[in-house]
C-alpha cells in the first residue's frame, strides 16, 4: 500500500501552476513598470518647478538685505535697485499664520475630541458634515464671508487680523481631520483600562488619550500652518499690501509673501529687480513651508510616546 501511495501521480493542477505563476509574474511586472512610469511622469513637473524657483530665487535670498530690510525706499514704479528686502512680507506671513493657528488649532482639536470621544447621534453627524463642507470651501469664498461680516454687517475697517479669520476657516477642517484620525488610532484598551481604575472620562482623554497621539496632532497642526502660510486669495481680498514693516495685526496694512509676489509681478517684464523679488519671495515661501514641515516631523518624533 505504501508503495502504491508513493507511486501515485502528482495532481494535475501542479502541472498548470508554473504557467499561471509566469502569467502572474508578467502582470505584476507590467503593473510595477506602469506605476514607476506614472511616478516619474508626476515627478518631472515637480522637479522642474523646484529647480526653476530655487535657481532664480536663491540669489535674492542670499542677500543680507532680503532678511533685514523692507521696501520703504522703493519708488512708485518699484525701480530702486538698492532695495531687495522682504522682511515686511516674511514677518507678515508668519504673524498671520501664527494668529490663524492660535485660533484654529484649539477649535479643531476640541472638535476632533468631540467627534471621537463624545459624538453620537444627529449633532455629531451635523458637526462632521460641516467639517466636510469647510474642507471643500474655496479660499476666496472664505474671504468673501469675512468681508461681508466684517465690513458689510459691522461696518468695520479691514485690518490684517481679517485675513487670519479667513484663513481660520481653511485651517480648521485640515487640523480637525488630522487630529480625528490620530485619536481613532489610540487603542480602546487604554481607555478601558483607565475606566476600570475609576478615572473619569475627561481625565482619561487628557492624561491617556491625548499624550498617546500628541505627535500626530502636533504634526497635523504644523501641516495646517504650512498650508495657510501659502494662501493667496484671502490676502488679496481682505489684507492690503504695504511696503513698510507692520507688526500690529489690528491696525493698518500688512504685507505677506503672496501679496509681495502679486504686487511685483506686474513689473517683471520691465524691471529685473522686481523679477528678482518675485522669484525670491516664491523661493522664500517654499523654504518656509519646507522648514515648517520638517519641524513638524521632528516635533512629532520628539513628542511620540516612548515604548
UniProtKB/TrEMBL annotation:
Membrane topology: Multi-pass membrane protein
Keyword annotations: Cell membrane, Membrane, Phosphate transport, Transmembrane, Transmembrane helix, Transport
A Pfam family hit: BPD_transp_1
Upper classification of the organism: Bacteria, Bacillati, Actinomycetota, Actinomycetes, Micrococcales
GO MF annotations, alphabetized: phosphate transmembrane transporter activity
Protein name: Phosphate transport system permease protein PstA
NCBIfam families, alphabetized: 3a0107s02c
Domain of life: Bacteria
Role played: Part of the binding-protein-dependent transport system for phosphate; probably responsible for the translocation of the substrate across the membrane.
A GO BP entry: phosphate ion transmembrane transport
Native species: Leekyejoonella antrihumi
Keyword Transport: yes
UniProt keyword annotation of Cell division present: no
Transmembrane region(s): 30-51, 89-115, 127-150, 156-175, 205-226, 278-299
Compartment(s) of residence: Cell membrane
Family note: Belongs to the binding-protein-dependent transport system permease family. CysTW subfamily.
GO CC aspect terms: plasma membrane
Occurrences of domain ABC transmembrane type-1 (ranges): 90-300
